[in-house]
Design goal:
Layout: E1 21-24, E2 29-32, E3 35-36, H1 37-43, H2 46-55, H3 61-73, H4 80-86, H5 94-108, H6 119-144, H7 158-167, H8 178-191, H9 198-208, H10 213-225, H11 232-245, H12 250-258, H13 279-295, H14 300-313, H15 316-320, H16 327-337, H17 345-366
Antiparallel strand pairs: 1-2, 2-3
Helix pairs in contact: 1-8, 2-17, 3-6, 5-6, 5-10, 6-7, 6-17, 8-13, 8-16, 8-17, 9-10, 9-17, 10-17, 11-14, 11-16, 12-14, 13-16
The structure holds carboxymethyl coenzyme *A.
C-alpha cells in the first residue's frame, strides 16, 4: 500500500484472467474460445456463437435446438414496456431507449436482482435478455418513426425475426432476403466479443458490485454509445456524408485529422490494441463489396471510404501511429445497404456484443472476482479550513 501505479485509460493494466476471447493486436488475431474469427464468420450462426461464448464450447445439435427454442419462448416483452417506450419523444436516440428498457427488465424480473441465482435461474435471465433485446431494439426504431410495433414471429430465426420486427408493415407482406440474413449473421458474429473493451469492462465493473445482469448490460450499452467506442459506426457514415457533401476530397479530411488543433479524428480509424490491422475490418471490407453487389446497391460513400482508407494508409502520420481501419469503418456501409437507419447502427453493435457481455459477466461471477475499485493519485489541495460565505 502507499505506492499507486498510474495507468490512465488502463492501457497496460490487466483487470482479469479470461478464457473467452484471445486477441493479439500485433498479429491481428482474434479468436472466440480458441476458434478463429474468420472461420466463425464464414461457417457459424450468431446464435451458435452466442452459445459458444456463454457456455464455452460449440453446442451439439440438441444443445443448439434447446438454446434456440428457449430464446424463442421469450421474445415477447411485457406490454407495460410499450408504455415506457411511449413516454420517449420520437426523436430519442435508440441507444438511450435500449439502455433504459434493458435496465427496466429488472422491474419485470426482480428475481434477476438476486446475486445468488441458481444455474437454471441465471440461464433463464440470459435467454430472456438474448430474446428481448432484438424486440426492444426494433420497437425503439418503430417508435422513432411513429409506426406501430411488430410482434416477434417465432417461426423465424433470430436474425430474420429482427428484420421482420424492423421492416414489416401491417399493410404489406415483408419478404426477408437471405442475402440480408447472411450479412446480418456475419456482422453480429464479428461484434460478439472483444475481450476487455470499454463497454465489457463496464459490464464487469458494474457486475462486480453484485449488480444484476440487466443493470450491468444496461451500463455496457451506455458505454458502447460513446463515439470513441461503438458510436463510431454512426460517426463514420456521418463523416463520409460530410466528405461527400464537401466535394469528396478525402485528402482535406486527412489533413484535418492530422491537425492537433482540430478536434476532428478520422472515425473508424485506430485501435487501442490492433497495431497492424483489425481482422474484423478485413472481413467486413470484403463483405461490404459482396453484400452491395448481391443487393445491387451502388453507394457512392463506399468509394469515398475506399479512397479515404487508401489515402490514410499511405500517409506518414497514420503509418507512424499504426492507425488502420477498425471494425466500424465499413460496418456502417453494410448496415446502410441492408436498410438499417444510421442512428440504429450502434444498436446493431449492441445486439452483436450482447453474448460477449453476458459471457464476461458470467465468467466474472464464476471466478468470484472482488468488487472492481481502481485507486488514484491525489493531486488536489492540501487540507484547508472552511471559509464562511462572506469571506470568499
Ligand atoms: N484520427 C487521427 N488521429 C488519431 C486517430 C484517428 N482516428 N486515432 C488515434 N490517433 C492519434 C492520436 O491523436 C495520437 O496521436 P499523438 O501520439 O500524436 O498524440 C495517437 O494516434 C495515439 O492515439 P490514442 O488516442 O492515444 O490511442 P488510444 O488507444 O487511446 O485510442 C481510439 C484508440 C480507438 C479511441 C482512437 O484511435 C480513436 O479515437 N479512433 C476514432 C474512433 C473510432 O474509430 N473508434 C472505434 C474503435 S474500434 C470499435 C470499438 O472499440 O468500439
Amino acid at each position: 500500500s502507499g505506492y499507486i501505479t498510474l495507468d490512465s485509460g488502463y492501457k497496460n493494466t490487466g483487470a482479469t484472467e479470461s478464457a473467452i476471447t484471445f486477441l493479439d493486436g500485433e498479429e491481428g488475431i482474434l479468436r472466440y474460445r480458441g476458434y478463429p474469427i474468420e472461420q466463425l464468420a464464414e461457417e457459424s450462426s450468431f446464435i451458435e456463437v452466442a452459445y459458444l461464448l456463454i457456455y464455452g464450447s460449440l453446442p451439439t445439435q440438441e444443445q443448439l435446438d434447446s438454446f434456440t427454442n428457449e430464446i424463442k419462448i421469450h421474445t415477447l416483452v411485457n406490454e407495460d414496456m410499450r408504455k415506457i417506450l411511449d413516454g420517449f419523444p420520437s426523436a430519442a436516440h435508440p441507444m438511450g431507449i435500449l439502455s433504459a428498457l434493458v435496465s427496466s427488465l429488472t422491474a419485470f424480473y426482480p428475481e434477476s436482482l438476486n446475486p445468488n441465482q441458481k444455474k437454471e435461474e441465471l440461464d433463464l435471465s440470459i435467454v430472456r435478455l438474448m430474446a428481448k433485446m432484438p424486440t426492444i431494439a426494433a420497437w425503439s426504431y418503430k417508435n422513432s418513426i411513429g409506426h406501430p410495433v411488430n410482434y416477434p414471429k417465432n417461426k423465424l430465426d433470430y436474425c430474420s425475426n429482427f428484420l421482420h420486427m424492423m421492416f414489416a408493415y401491417p399493410t404489406e407482406d415483408y419478404q426477408i432476403d437471405p442475402v440480408v440474413v447472411k450479412a446480418l449473421n456475419k456482422l453480429l458474429i464479428l461484434h460478439a466479443d472483444h475481450e476487455q473493451n470499454c463497454s465489457t469492462s463496464t459490464v464487469r465493473l458494474v457486475g462486480s458490485a453484485n449488480a444484476s445482469l440487466y443493470s450491468s448490460v444496461s451500463a455496457g450499452i451506455s458505454a458502447l454509445w460513446g463515439p470513441l467506442h461503438g458510436g463510431a459506426n454512426q460517426a463514420v457514415i456521418e463523416m463520409l456524408e460530410q466528405i461527400k457533401a464537401d466535394g469528396g476530397d478525402s485528402k482535406k479530411f486527412i489533413a484535418k485529422a492530422k491537425d492537433k488543433d482540430d478536434p476532428f479524428r478520422l472515425m473508424g480509424f485506430g485501435h487501442r490494441v490492433y497495431k497492424n490491422f483489425d481482422p474484423r475490418a478485413t472481413i467486413i471490407k470484403k463483405a461490404a463489396d459482396e453484400v452491395l453487389t448481391a443487393l445491387g446497391v451502388k453507394d457512392p460513400i463506399l468509394d469515398i471510404a475506399k479512397e479515404l482508407e487508401e489515402a490514410a494508409l499511405t500517409d506518414q502520420y497514420f503509418v507512424d501511429r499504426k492507425l488502420y481501419p477498425n471494425v466500424d469503418f465499413y460496418s456502417g456501409i453494410i448496415y446502410r445497404a441492408l436498410g438499417i437507419p444510421t442512428d440504429m447502427f450502434t444498436v446493431m453493435f449492441a445486439l452483436g456484443r450482447l453474448p460477449g457481455w453476458i459471457s464476461q459477466w458470467k465468467e466474472m461471477r464464476e471466478q468470484k472476482e472482488p468488487i472492481g475499485r481502481p485507486r488514484q493519485v491525489y493531486v488536489g489541495e492540501k487540507e484547508r479550513n472552511y471559509v464562511q460565505m462572506n469571506g470568499r
